Amino acid sequence: MFRKFFLVLLLCTGSAAFGQGIYSWKDAGGQVHYSDMPPPDAKVRTVRQGSITPQPPARTAEGGEAAAAASPSSQQSYAEKELAFRKRRAEAAEAEEKARKAQANDQARQRECAENRAQLTALESGQRMSRFDENGERVFLDDDERSAAIERTRRIVDKTCR
């Protein structure tokens, strides 16, 4: 009795092992690998095709069967799922980096706008303004230079403070 049970158990476990496919590929170093799951980015050769065993229907949260049929071609291997996950994670990191750069650019633009508005306010206030010439000496602005500086600063404010 024990021998028959052991024999049946041995046949059942052996048939499950033979039901999987075996794949072969070479890595970058030229070493040959064998596995039941092929890598997604290598040229794979099928050594033995696995037999397809029927899958039990997937259950939903209500306990009913899922509407979509589970065919072997629609199921993803773990390597494919991992590749899809890494792709989603890279896209999320790229979107986060893009948002961070946009925020930094917006802050720089707001800072530049505030500085230009302060310069325009100072020019329009009528107080004495000066600049330094090429020799490093202080030169006070006359009325024509002041009005040119006001116009130039207004254009910059209009451009940067939209």
From TrEMBL:
Q: Where is the composition biased (Low complexity)?
A: 61-70
Q: Which UniProt keywords apply?
A: Signal
**Region Disordered, residue ranges:** 48-129
User: Sorted alphabetically, which InterPro entries does this protein's record hold?
Assistant: DUF4124 (IPR025392)
Top-rank taxon: Bacteria
Q: Where is the composition biased (Polar residues)?
A: 118-128
Check the UniProt entry and state the signal peptide residues, or none. 1-19
Query: Which positions fall inside the DUF4124 domain?
Result: 9-61
Compositional bias (Basic and acidic residues) at which positions? 79-100
Record flagged with keyword Protein biosynthesis: no
Q: Pfam families recorded for this chain?
A: DUF4124 (PF13511)
- The protein here is known as DUF4124 domain-containing protein
Q: What is the lineage of its organism?
A: Bacteria, Pseudomonadati, Pseudomonadota, Betaproteobacteria, Rhodocyclales
